[in-house]
Amino acid sequence: MGARKADLDEEFRDKAEKVFAQFGDPRERAVQDAKMMWLAWRGDDRFVQVHLSDQVGLESSWRFCKYTEVPSLGEPYKYVEARPMRSPFTEHVLASLTALFQRLVSERIGARVYSLSLNGDTAGLTQDGIDAGRAYKYASEGFEIVADWPKEPRGVLKSRSISLSQERFLYFDFVHKVARATHSERGFAQMLARQERASARRRRKSLLKWIVSG
User: Fold this and answer.
1) More exposed terminus of the chain, fewer Cβ within 10 Å: N or C?
2) Long-range residue pairs from 87-90, CB within 8 A, at least 24 positions apart, any chain
3) Cα(201)–Cα(166) distance, rounded to whole angstroms?
4) Rounded (10°) angle between helices 26-41 and 2-19
5) pLDDT mean over 101-111
6) What is the pLDDT of residue 97?
7) E strands of 9-77, at which residues?
8) In angstroms, rounded to a whole number, what is the distance separating the alpha carbons of residues 176 and 157?
9) Any idea what DSSP says for residue 23?
10) Which residue has the higher pLDDT, 7 or 111?
11) Which residues pair with 173 in a beta bridge?
């Protein structure tokens, strides 16, 4: 039994050092993340699962944090996606993320704010001219609220995009102030591909895999 425990402990340490290699204390970070995952799994809505990508020198990853920490992630990261362990977001978490959405819209002029219907019969239909101040109303009624910043007037390409629904909060900065040499085009393409094929089941498996596999 002691030998088995030692093997599991060593395996946990090895996995933690790979997953949390960017931290100075990867094992401690792994233990904290496991605790947050357990609490989120048990229904503690203080914790959300987040996908973070393109921080300078780091790879993308899924991990957990308190929903109150989400606002601080937009500066170092180019892509931030936050989801509840169990959908939808509770009312106070949705309200907090709505306040973040509204602040980000107010900080930079030129945003086009609109809603997307998530209803199966009308999915994807847009409604222009949504007031960001009413974002909570629309999000709580089942719409996805989106703010896009076009790269040029009437242009199709975006420089920044934010969206909010009962299922997720998404921040995407297409023009990030980092050195060009630090980017990996292959990594960016892989990140976009992962985004397209992600599903709730795959996300849960990826979150648990490094702990329960073996």
Assistant:
1) N
2) 87/166, 87/167, 87/200, 88/166, 88/167, 89/45, 89/48, 89/166, 89/167, 90/45
3) 18
4) 100
5) 90
6) 96
7) 47-53, 61-66
8) 15
9) S
10) 111
11) 160
How far apart, in Å, are the Cα atoms of 23 and each of 26, 28, 36, 113, 151? 5, 9, 17, 37, 35
Type of residue found at 49 = Q
Residue with tokens 């985004």, as numbered in its chain: 195
26-41 and 200-212 are packed helices; what angle lies between their axes, rounded to 10 degrees? 130
pTM: 0.69
Find the angle CA(115)-CA(198)-CA(99) to the nearest 5 degrees: 40
Q: Are 53 and 38 in contact (CB under 8 A)?
A: no
- What is the arithmetic mean of pLDDT over 83-108? 93
| Structure confidence at residue 119 (pLDDT) | 67
Q: What is the distance between the alpha carbons of residues 209 and 202, in angstroms, rounded to a whole number?
A: 10
Phi-psi region of 110 (alpha: psi -120 to 50; beta: other; left: phi over 0): left
Contact yes or no for 156/129 (Cβ under 8 A): no
Residues 29-44: tens digit of each pLDDT: 788 888 888 888 888 8
Q: Is the pLDDT of residue 54 over 90?
A: no
- Given a cut of 80, whether residue 161 has pLDDT beyond it is yes
- Indicate the pairing of strand 79-83 with strand 158-164: unpaired
Residue of 191, 196, 158, 189 lying closest to 175 (CA atoms): 158
